[in-house]
Automatic annotation (TrEMBL):
This is tyrosine ammonia-lyase. SUPFAM superfamilies: L-aspartase-like (SSF48557). It comes from Paraburkholderia panacisoli. It catalyses: L-tyrosine = (E)-4-coumarate + NH4(+). It comes from the Bacteria. It is an enzyme of class 4 (lyase). The lineage of its organism: Bacteria, Pseudomonadati, Pseudomonadota, Betaproteobacteria, Burkholderiales. One of its GO terms (molecular function) is tyrosine ammonia-lyase activity.
Amino acid sequence: MAEHDLSDARDAGASVNAHADANANMAAIMIGARKLTIEEVVAIAQHRAPVALSTDPAWRARIQRGADFLRRHLAAGATVYGVNTGYGDACVVDVPTELIEALPLQLTRYHGCGMGQHLDDAQTLAVIAARLNSLAYGFSGVRPVLLERLADLINHRVLPRIPAEGSVGASGDLTPLSYVAAALAGERDVKFEGALRDVHDVWAELGLAPLTLAPKEGLALMNGTAVMTGLACLAFARADHLTRLAARLTALSTVALDGRAAHFDATLFEVKPHAGQAEAAGWIRDDLAGRDDTPGHRLQDRYSIRCAPHVIGVARDALTWVRRDVENELNSANDNPLIDPDNERVLHGGNFYGGHIAFAMDALKVAVANLADLMDRQFALLVDVNFNNGLPRNLSGAAPARAAINHGFKAVQISSSAWTAEALKNTMPASVFSRSTESHNQDKVSMGTIAARDCLRVLELTEQVAAAHTLATVQAARLRLRIDSATPVPAPLQRFIDNVSTGSPFVDEDRALESELRALTARIAACDLLDDYRGGSNA
């Protein structure tokens, strides 16, 4: 549409500028009159960039025009769902004129029933960014001040406490998003400057007043897919990073097992032309550059090494369409009803339905769990004296005199197997478990938010497997060099070994590795383990 062809932008609105935070010196990510990317949502979520609303006059006029039209439409006696009617199956209930202004706040209040753990800071920021961008599309009938105040939440890190559980993914993420709407209206607690605070006090401290939500603004904030979409953006970035890490660990495992680089020859992947598979093989081949196969070794390495590009490639190729669907949802008007300011129409529909995100997250969690299984199988080869081509049992680095009482990575591999099993168990698709709710009005729902949460849990478990495999593979490579100091270790792999070793020294005598595993898992989740790879894939 025309509004997406506009590119002019401005600094944040006055309310944002008045209380600039520590990120003010960073380049702001512009919201409005342009499309947002997954990487931009991740940058917002990771506190790497503030947001600013576009100053394009046409865009700002369009936002105001939608709110003005809705007011005129109501004044003319029109009936608009959720504005002068009840919600859901109560759409047949007319709301008296004198109660219309009170209706939005009532919506936020009765949806304040979320349960489970609260979203963390990054997840909360991703959710707010997704909701802001959707409302900035210009089809929701909200005022510019509402967009400015959502930007304030991001830029001042005023973080609503959003319970993770309670959304069926249609009519959007109603219950979790009610906590965002309530925060704007001055109700419920928020996290601010590291403390749990009453949001009314926080707004006063910032010199701002809580918003009185205009007709439809409560519904516009809540009746959309922002929670599942924000979480999906974070899931995409982490899955993207894991595919590259799995490729690197395959290359390092090949060195540690004294395996064959020829399994990753480019011709193999030209004649089976799945793009992601070829990409993964190329990464492994680059990491093994300069390593020749030694005659006399096993002719073919086991599947978890030889077929690694084929496993990783499935995830790489999945990420291409996952990006497409997540970014389409991110850059959509997904509430109901929609307000068309150009043709002055109210469109009652179902854009709040999160089916595309649900399916994408269901598929992505399967692809990621397969990475966990791949890495766990490689790990199992490394610790087993029957398959590791002469490495010490369980990768123990103990001196011979103490070898009998040292067990190296035995328990870590058991734990890795447990994490893998749990990741695999969580691949049950959520999107097929639609439940009829709300007096059979919401009788077919997406379960997109549950799918996204499941995907994040699978990612968490897979990152734990990756951390365990990383420590073990680095240990194995160092042990291989003990056996044969002439073993070629290509430069990218040596840098990786050195990087990991700074946080986890060689394991000679057994020690508790929990703290090292936790620290490394955190680095993997933050996508900062690979110093020569920083995400932003072309997937």
